[in-house]
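Wait, can you check?
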Amino acid sequence: MWRTRRSYDSPYQPPEAEVGDEAGGLEGANSPDTTESPPAATTPTRVFQTRKNEVPLAGPVERIREFNTGREPERLQIKYARMRSDIFAFFRGTSHLFYDDWPAGNLLDRTPTVWATGDLHMENFGSFKANNRLVYFDLIDFDDAGLAPAGWELTRFVTSVIVGARDLGVGGRETIGLTQLFLRSYGAALKEGKARWVERPTAKGMVKDLLTELKSRSRRELLDSRTEINGRARRLRIDMKRTLPVPEVARGRIAAFMKKWAARQPDPEFFQLLDVARRIAGVSSLGLPRYALLVEGNGSPHRNFLLDLKMANPSAMISRGTTSQPQWKNDADRIVAIQQRMQSVSPALHHPVLVNRQPYVIAELQPTQDRLLLTRWGGKIRRLEKVMTAMGETVAWAELRSGGRNGSAIPDDLINFANSDGWQHEVVGYARFYASKVESDYKEFSRAYDAGELGGA
């Protein structure tokens, strides 16, 4: 299936990139320095080819505006500002463009069907305390999760490496080396056929640092950083960076929900709501309803708990794909179920709920500093190489762990895929092309944002 290299023709034309066909390896990449700009690429056709027809695509700014229609204006402007701040944030906030632009007939559509996060990128990994109170490093964002060809997930990740490398100050040859290392590690973990997980004693580099920091941090420290104490009562700190005030109507609605939901829990007093604020976190979901909740926990004021309540939106990947999906009750049920399948152990207090008949996910609040931020590489390429190894293995383990469920490929099929040749070339070739497309779209978005066409200036 994968032994024949093909030339990249319509509907896309990436730059030439000779990539080795060794199973699990990508040696021999022709990788010019991309510190100044990604490799040049022929402009793609402005047509998205579906299986049944051809639908002309609007420009990126119009599609971004349409995708975000109906979101809360205040937090939507924060999203646009973050997307304007750098190209990697733009890439994170526009997964829908990636799937809009995906060409019909791509050979990667024939890769095994797997459970996928739908938005795999370099910062979609992090550490968290699971429901067994141990600390894990794993995939952490499943808002767009669903069934998809494995090649979609891999290509989005490799594109993120190429897009993000320039902001990190990584040279072009080193960037291609990092993508090779990721794919080698992914393939080797699949071929082993056993789902494992990253543990603190065996973790290396930035992953080990992240796990160690979270283990040493107390809940009291987290509470003190997010709240203020007045007498013996805590209130959420409204700093306009991580939290915003909540309108009284929304406050009342959430309070009513929490009262009913808590009554159905084994310890209703634990979930007594003390305060609520609108939460600012991430990029892609900004503008959707999301709240930080302060609850009684194990006792006020120092044993309170912080929860995250986030609206579940339809998946951009699913809505633009053709892979048959299970029938979920709602999008919150989809997100929680897939996360439980793919992660080694799920986070604490992780449930799908309905608030005013709308699907939300409620979970213990996971601070943004627990996300793996690659800006901490400190100019040491070996630190990034260790991260790529851990990420490649983590993705493979998630696919193996969830394999055989509701139409996903069984482990034997994933092992056979890893032992085949040529898919690595397809992944890197399209990713290098699409990185140029991201740069072009980012420039167009930046021009529109600076001109005030998106409400910001």
Observations:
- Confidence is low (pLDDT under 50) at residues 3-53.
